[in-house]
């Protein structure tokens, strides 16, 4: 469902997969800080960022923390509006049953609408 | 109307993602390595952006691309860049 | 963030427990109920069952998510575990005056919550 009233103030775009860099973690931290301060937050998993939603992630080879526990925690910060790029799901062969959180697939048109609808867009 | 700023070459995820998220009236400004996309041979990389595609003068010039850019790309200097940001509601950077 | 810098020691039953500059445990595994009582005493808090149940919620939160909660998710977690009457800022403010998320995390032996002031 596309519900205008659920458009949050802040849109955080996550474009990086887990573990390869700190971009994903930094993006999630920004979202958590905003939510802790009562801002409404939408997350858009774009490109390889979609891999952050994949179930079954673990720690890094040196025991570095993963981002999956943080994803699971989003609900406690009332961050529940999650969007994922349709094309990324296709590119990586993912479907809803493989994801650890329910994210709504969006096409290009809807992505552009989301960017326009949020008063603040942070791109990670 | 948003201003999207792209500083990566056409053959990158950042470029593809910027184009996916571009609204029908949004503008796209190429800066830094992004200006490689201003070459005529790269026009196919920016479908549907006719009349809304800009490139930064200084970055074209530094790369020897000034005068070699495709027709229809609007070249702006830093002042033009500022004017663009003022004309648009917000900017979104793709890097 | 968890700090590894030892700033001072807390004496608990003849053991020296290292604390970081903000009074959080340097080693999370040093935590025990006795340590929690000693940390609480430093804050001028005598722990009651109302405190302990929140401390358990905090420790459970960390076990699930690997982070200490900011105030908003703490209120939510307490509400989910202990009911809506207790899942309110005012209740937590009474138990852990000042900043319940920070004071609570300290007494629960967790790192300082990262997403709050």
Automatic annotation (TrEMBL), chain A:
Superkingdom assignment: Bacteria
InterPro entries: DsrEFH-like, Sulphur_relay_DsrE/F-like, Sulphur_relay_TusC/DsrF
One Pfam family matching this protein: DsrE
UniProt-listed NCBIfam families: PRK00211.1 (NF001238)
PANTHER family xrefs: PROTEIN TUSC
Family under the similarity heading: Belongs to the DsrF/TusC family.
Protein name according to UniProt: tRNA 2-thiouridine synthesizing protein C
Automatic annotation (TrEMBL), chain B:
InterPro entries with a match to the protein in the record: DsrEFH-like, Sulphur_relay_TusB/DsrH
A Pfam family it matches: DsrH
Lineage top rank: taxon: Bacteria
GO biological process: tRNA wobble position uridine thiolation
Any one GO cellular component localisation term in the record: sulfurtransferase complex
NCBIfam families: sulf_tusB_dsrH (TIGR03011)
Protein's UniProt name: tRNA 2-thiouridine synthesizing protein B
Organism: Halomonas shengliensis
Automatic annotation (TrEMBL), chain C:
Enzyme class: transferase
CC per GO annotation: cytoplasm
Keyword field: Cytoplasm, Transferase
GO biological process: tRNA wobble position uridine thiolation
Enzyme nomenclature, EC number: 2.8.1.-
Subcellular location: Cytoplasm
The keyword DNA repair is assigned to this record: no
InterPro entries named in the record: DsrC-like_C (IPR042072), DsrC-like_dom_sf (IPR025526), DsrC-like_N (IPR043163), DsrC/TusE (IPR007453)
Annotated Pfam families: DsrC
Keyword Disulfide bond attached: no
Active-site positions on this chain: 116 (cysteine persulfide intermediate)
Any one GO molecular function term: sulfur carrier activity
Family: Belongs to the dsrC/tusE family.
NCBIfam families in the cross-refs: dsrC_tusE_dsvC (TIGR03342)
Role description: Part of a sulfur-relay system.
Protein name as catalogued: Sulfurtransferase
Naturally occurring in which organism (per UniProt): Halomonas shengliensis
């Amino acid at each position: 469902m596309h519900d205008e009233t659920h458009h949050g103030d802040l849109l955080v775009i996550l474009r990086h997969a887990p573990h390869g860099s700190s971009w994903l973690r930094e993006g999630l931290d920004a979202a958590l800080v905003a939510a802790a301060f009562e801002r409404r937050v939408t997350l858009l998993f774009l490109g390889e960022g979609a891999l952050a939603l994949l179930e079954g992630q673990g720690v890094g080879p040196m025991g570095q923390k993963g981002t999956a526990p943080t994803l699971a925690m989003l609900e406690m910060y009332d961050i529940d509006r999650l969007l994922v790029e349709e094309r990324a799901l296709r590119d990586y062969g993912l479907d809803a049953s493989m994801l650890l959180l329910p994210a709504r697939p969006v096409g290009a048109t809807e992505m552009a609408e989301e960017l326009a609808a949020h008063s603040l867009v942070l791109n990670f | 109307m948003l201003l999207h700023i792209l500083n990566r070459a056409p053959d990158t995820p950042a470029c593809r993602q910027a184009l996916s998220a571009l609204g029908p009236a949004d503008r796209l400004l190429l800066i830094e390595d992004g200006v490689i996309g201003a070459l005529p041979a790269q026009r196919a990389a920016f479908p549907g952006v006719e009349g809304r595609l800009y490139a930064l003068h200084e970055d074209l010039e530094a790369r020897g691309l000034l005068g070699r850019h495709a027709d229809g790309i609007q070249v702006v200097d830093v002042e033009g860049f500022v004017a663009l940001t003022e004309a648009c509601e917000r900017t979104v950077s793709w890097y | 963030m968890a700090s590894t810098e030892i700033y001072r020691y807390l004496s608990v039953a003849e053991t020296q427990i290292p604390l970081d500059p903000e009074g959080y445990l340097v080693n999370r595994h040093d935590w025990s109920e006795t340590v929690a009582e000693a940390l609480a005493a430093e804050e001028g808090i005598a722990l009651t069952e109302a405190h302990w149940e929140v401390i358990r919620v905090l420790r459970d939160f960390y076990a699930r998510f690997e982070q200490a909660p900011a105030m908003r998710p703490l209120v939510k977690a307490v509400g989910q575990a202990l009911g809506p009457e207790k899942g309110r800022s005012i209740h937590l403010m009474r138990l852990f005056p000042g900043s319940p998320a920070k004071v609570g995390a300290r007494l629960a032996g967790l790192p300082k919550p990262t997403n709050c002031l």
